[in-house]
């Protein structure tokens, strides 16, 4: 049966108490994990440290820590600390983010993001294994040459903290297959699964692994109701935002993922309208298929069947992006969990 997850974040603009209530309710409903967001508002760490003390069983993951916002050693120390605070429930989700955030917010060069990700993971594996952090790469050298530093071993016992990678581009997906414990997928459609999974599979096989060695977790927008067209219309602006705003005009991994799934003309047209400031037109340009094929939208029976489709193509878990109705977010989550459990 599919494992369910939810994303949490944005508590700077909402009531933190409501966040705790939601996560505790998710734990009661059987949600397997929560993933904390990090973009240009809330960080991915603080909320999990707090929630570790407010929960008992649910897994706590960073969804995602931006690798450019921290040195690899600090990422390792943070991960080990959160793993200790949560009594082994922590999952380390990492991603390269995009040039607008990396260069605009952090003031760090975005060039060669995959190389930096590979070196970061290599250093993390050393740290988690209890080894001294001696490393020489293109992007990171430990200890710093010519200085007074020496290779240090982190003051934690060895712990195999699971590393999940949020990747979208083909070469990054191959690296995920070769080196990660799990994948945090977005812009994924079970109807076009090979647009992502073929690359993960190739990387896994080249590393002597198989696709089953990687826990495949895909984001899934869930909207349940009898007026299917109204549900679709409600979701068009969000897809338009992804196509036009989630990256620069030249670098938009979400847009590229939809292209690989066969939506090149649509993705480019929506992006062009968005960049020109025609956001309402961009939303109207989103075809139904870019919504219905990339989530679970429709009547209860339709949504239940979509969950079966995700599982049939090899997805192990879904991060539920639940669209709340009049009953509220908790009721919508409970309904989604009922449908997942009845589909299993």
Please summarize what this structure is.
46% of the residues lie in helices and 15% in strands.
Can you give a write-up of this model?
It is a single chain. The protein is an alpha/beta fold and 344 residues long. It folds into 2 domains: 3-223 and 297-343, Luciferase-like domain (TIM Barrel), CATH 3.20.20; 226-296, no CATH class. The chain is built from 14 helices and 12 strands. The strands form 2 sheets. Strands 1-2-3-5-8-9-10-12 form an 8-stranded parallel barrel, surrounded by 6 helices. It has a two-stranded antiparallel ribbon with strand order 6-7. The longest helix has 18 residues, at 228-245. It is globular. The N and C termini lie close together (5 Å). The mean pLDDT is 94.
CATH class of the largest domain: Alpha Beta
Distance between the termini: 5 Å
Poorly predicted tracts of residues: none
Q: What share of residues is helical?
A: 40-55%
The helix tally amounts to 14
Choose one word for the global shape. globular
Let me know the average pLDDT: 94
Strand order of the largest sheet: 1-2-3-5-8-9-10-12
